[in-house]
Design brief:
This protein is an alpha/beta fold. The chain is built from eight helices and twelve strands. A nine-stranded mixed sheet has the order 6-5-4-7-8-9-10-11-12. Strands 1-3-2 form a three-stranded mixed sheet, with helices on one face. The protein is rod-shaped, with a radius of gyration of 35 Å. Essential cell division protein.
């Protein structure tokens, strides 16, 4: 027979694993707020006259601001979550290093202007919007640059975006389908020439390389190695003439190696080596 000991242990409070109620949490926050207000008031009453008397107003203001931010953090205004929207190409760890904010830090301890400035130094980022969602969240919306071409410069490859801005720190494996542009000033003029090429899809689908010649005009190299020389003054007109030649079936790898459209009055075609041999043999037969 087991006897139950009904003797009570004195001095022990009951232990509960349940979460505190909402009213309980509100009481705790109110107590923290009252403590913070009282402490801030006492600190100000003591430190303000003393700091002014010692002649250190700037140091005093900085100290007071630090205490204020720390106090707000203890009242629950701490970073718990950082939400990032708009990231597609940039690596999350790169964003994290730029943000440099840890969970539990006072949410007002980070300047939004400084944070924005650090993020905008990343090549991929075009613009940033940051806001605090009190009491414990940072919201960051990123607008990334959209690559349209690969720039080859001094044996190094970079990406070029829609505004002609060079993206230096980028992995190129997922952008191999983009056209290659060459020339010292090619990035600046790439958006315009690609906009023109979009009007001629039959040409655009054949483009492999766009070469900026003497910083004045463009040469186009097709995927089948045919070279096209565009006019300096009227590149769109050159493309329209080239498009007509393609529609007429006059531009084939086996027949033509170069198309010169620089002169508005004429079109110069250079035969491919294969076509030249065929014509030569045909002449001997006759």
């Amino acid at each position: 027979m087991i006897r139950r000991n009904k003797k009570k242990t004195a001095g022990l409070a009951p232990v509960s694993m349940a979460q505190p109620s909402r009213k309980g949490r509100q009481r705790q926050r109110q107590q923290w707020r009252r403590w913070f207000i009282n402490a801030s008031t006492i600190t100000a009453l003591i430190a303000l006259p003393l700091g002014l008397w010692l002649g250190y107003p700037q140091l005093l203001l900085s100290f007071g601001e630090s205490c204020f931010i720390s106090g707000l953090g203890k009242c629950g205004f701490q970073i718990q979550e950082i939400f990032i929207e708009g990231r597609e190409f940039i690596k999350p760890e790169v964003v994290g290093q730029a943000v440099n904010a840890k969970r539990g830090e006072p949410i007002f301890g980070h300047s939004l202007d400084d944070l924005k400035s650090r993020l905008e130094k990343i090549d991929w980022i075009k613009s940033v919007h940051i806001e605090r969602q009190l009491p414990d969240q940072l919201y960051i919306k990123i607008s990334e640059r959209y690559p349209i071409a690969i720039w080859q410069h001094q044996k190094t490859l970079y990406l070029v975006d829609r505004e002609g801005v060079v993206i230096q720190n980028a992995k190129l494996y997922q952008f191999q389908q983009l056209p290659l542009v060459i020339g010292p000033d090619a990035p600046l003029h790439t958006p315009k020439i690609l906009t023109l090429l979009e009007k001629f899809p039959k040409i655009l689908e054949r483009v492999k390389v766009l070469t900026r010649v003497r910083q004045r005009r463009w040469d186009i190299t097709f995927k089948d190695s045919i070279l096209v020389k565009l006019s300096e003054q009227k590149p769109e007109e050159s493309l329209a003439r080239l498009s007509l030649l393609i529609e007429q079936g006059k531009i084939h790898k086996g027949d033509v190696s170069m198309v010169d459209l620089r002169n508005r009055e004429q079109i110069v075609l250079r035969l491919s080596p294969e076509a030249a041999i065929r014509i030569k043999l045909k002449g001997k037969e006759t």
